[in-house]
Amino acid sequence: MGYLLGLKEINEVLRQWNKNFVIYAPKLIPDGGAFSDTDSVHYGEVTSIEEIVFDRKSDFSFKEILLPISETLFYFTEDSVMEPATPEKQAIIFLRSCDLHAVKRLDTMYLHNGAEDHYYKRLRDRVKFILMGCKESYESCFCVDMETNRSDDYHASMDLSEEGVRIDNKNPEWDELLTANCTKQADVTPSYVTETETRVNIPKSLSLDIMKSTMWNQYDSRCIGCGRCNFVCPTCTCFTMQDVFYTDNGKTGERRRVWASCMTDGFTDVAGGGSYRKNNGQRMRFKVLHKVYDYKKRNGIHMCVGCGRCDDVCPEYISFSHCINQLENGMKEVTEHES
What we know:
The chain is of the alpha+beta class. 29% of the residues lie in helices and 22% in strands.
């Protein structure tokens, strides 16, 4: 059985959760958009249900909560190394289904891709997820075709309705609090979309032969290599390292892990002055095939979850979904050229 709560009651639940958790959810940033007089929706700390944006897709993903944009791994002096303290509070993150699937991709990269990443795991182990139901998709979403439109892997789900807030709880530790504040119990199933306006088709015959296609050449001039697509993507995981030395003592400082982008200059620079994938078309090829070919070949699922944020954020109006839909013709081009 699920729970039905009024606004007053759900805010009391959030107030109680806030004692032990930092609650993160999509929230409106007035005048924070890319253009003047436009708003933006980012992940941030919330304390009430009214702050949470349910009816609009967040412009940025939740990713920086688990993978900070700039994360200090350790501090160092001439003769010692010290790790930063783990945050005192745990975290609750409100996610849509596509982003909940993205967590699985991050876990695969940081926990099951060789040795566990200590810094990711210590944050990941302290997080609980609340699924935000999706009653309808947004213009650039293609989660249905990526099979990420539905998820059961949550601690609780939350949907807004005319009756109030509908909750399906899977965390026994929250049952007592929810029972004490619910107006009534009812069957609750998280809402999810079954069709999207944007559709994608990943050809079953897709192979590395697609690298020979001329379809990538268009991005040499169209893409400006800003990396925005990587930074809003909930599954991009690349980073670089920075050693920061303090000005008052050049022998002390800290090492930071900082987000990096496969679409920007310098990402493929190597010792000796070499650099790979200098053209933006080559970078686009690498990114696309990593999302819908390489990762699946290794892990059985596509890395892309179809959230569509990369389509939304690109200043050159390059559509990742459209690029995916060009793959079939690209394969035909290569086959015809070689026959």
